[in-house]
Design brief:
about 190 residues; alpha/beta; five-stranded parallel beta sheet; two-stranded antiparallel ribbon; 7 helices; about 40% helix; about 20% strand
């Protein structure tokens, strides 16, 4: 099905973005991966599965897709920590999986834009995203940009004051912190609940 999308986009002179190489949530993993037996050397087997997948997809669309959401929605905002999956348990931590995904994508696509994408909008859990991005920088993980799925809730803002649970001031502060770390910003989705 992706080949059909790419053919249609090329026939209509449209760019194509890749979404997503790793959606780091068990509910979006194929069932076989959630129950996979990683064998006697689980780290090596998880690394093999992830790198093979990323190399296959990026190789198939090399020269066509120049921007990928390498990892999507990797944070459990109830726990304020990255999500655990079968792969993260095999590799020892969610960060090991996320870092490998980005390093593999960079090795395959040295000039592509590599994006961490998340659904946050004008929400208080942006601190979780900042911690994740700070960790990427500290570990030297090649992430170029933050993809923002902007699900904006207009009714949550008091029009007289601009305040509310999703206050514009807090949102701007968050975006400034992200760009202050050297990340670019992409609006990867946009909807307004009015």
């Amino acid at each position: 099905r992706m080949d059909e999308i790419v053919r249609w986009a090329q026939a209509n002179s449209l760019a194509v973005r890749g979404h997503t190489l790793l959606w780091h949530r068990p509910q979006w993993f194929p069932n076989w991966l959630n129950t996979y037996d990683y064998g006697a050397n689980p780290v090596r087997e998880a690394e093999r599965l992830l790198t093979e997948h990323i190399r296959t997809v990026t190789g198939r669309y090399k020269g066509i897709i120049q921007s990928y959401d390498v990892v999507n929605e990797a944070i459990d905002h109830d726990r304020n920590a990255p999500i655990e999956t079968s792969m993260s348990r095999a590799m020892g931590s969610p960060e090991a999986v996320l870092d490998l995904a980005f390093h593999t994508a960079r090795a395959e696509l040295p000039d592509a834009q590599l994006v961490y994408n998340d659904y946050m909008s004008w929400e208080p859990q942006n601190a979780d995203v900042l911690r994740l991005l700070e960790g990427f920088r500290k570990r030297g993980t090649p992430v170029d940009a933050l993809g923002i799925q902007s699900h904006i809730e207009i009714f949550a803002i008091d029009p007289a004051t601009g305040n509310g649970p999703y206050a514009e001031r807090e949102w701007r502060r968050f975006l400034d912190e992200v760009t202050g770390m050297g990340y670019r910003l992409l609006i990867t989705e946009f909807d307004v609940k009015d």
